Amino acid sequence: MLKVKENTKPAKSYKLPVADIQIPLFNAEPVAAKVDKSPVAHVPAQNIGAEKIEELHDLIMAQYNMSLYERRIFIKVLELLPETIVHPDGIALFEPLILDAREIIADSNLKGESAFMELQKATMSMIQHVCRIAEKDGLLQTGLISSAKYLTGKGQIRIHIDPALHPYLIRVKKHFSGEQLQTLIKFKSYYSQCFYEWFSKSAQSTKIVYISLYALRTMLRIGETEYERYYDLKRFVIGQAQKELKGTQYEFSFKEKRTGRKVIGLQFQLAK
Fold it and tell me: In this protein, which residues make up the domain named Initiator Rep protein WH1 (predicted)?
């Protein structure tokens, strides 16, 4: 799956098969990784217990390596998600969500017809992603979104979501405030979004967070062939996130932990 990195140098494509790993973004434990060089891979995800859904990445991110455009669409869906759905005659009805495609395009610095093509690729991938949630009475399988229709001449996308997924998405939404969702949408870098989400969890208990370099790469889904030199990782991933998070509640500085000359870990200090 294409991982969009803006303002970065070209990097080799790398993707971790979602069925082989399942770690929340907020868990920095190292895991074994395998290389999947295919541009798009839709591997069935492992089951997630319903009680775990309050962790954002237990439902979505830990199983599914979203591109920047998919994340923007997903965050916009969360922003527009109604708190309740109608249940006439015991049947749940979930009205479609209308997304402003032009707004997403502008925020993503996309241009021309290719912009709509990128959004179409993103929604197609989201439809193909299956959420598998272990509920008390059985296994729920549903697409992340059910359908997406691009309304001609309106610059809008009509998104349908399975009502069965609604209560879990609501729990995900409650992880962030409306202001935080707006901040996430405006980040240009995929990694800035990841850092913001990570700090939003870790900052609840401490302003100082240590993580090994290996665990950081694993958490950000950066493979062995991407940003092989620490200098490049520092400049194009950490540096970009530091620049975009400046002025937010998760503005940060960091120190390097070394063994000899080799950087083996990083200590992040939140400014606020």
Answer: 57-199
Instruction: Give pLDDT, residue 266.
Output: 94
pTM: 0.62
What are the φ/ψ torsions at residue 197 (nearest 5 degrees)?
-65, -40
Question: Domains (ranges, CATH) in the chain?
Answer: 48-186 (1.10.10.10), 190-270 (1.10.10.10)
Helix (H, G, I), strand (E, B) or coil at 7: coil
Q: How many CB atoms lie within 10 A of CB 102?
A: 14
> Phi and psi at residue 24, in whole multiples of 5°?
-65, 150
| H-only helix segments in the chain | 56-59, 68-80, 101-107, 112-128, 166-173, 178-186, 190-202, 213-219, 230-233, 239-245
Name the one residue in this structure whose structure tokens are 């098969």.
Answer: 17
Buried b (16+ CB within 10 A) or exposed e, 254-266: beeeeeeeebebb
143 CA to centre of own chain? 16
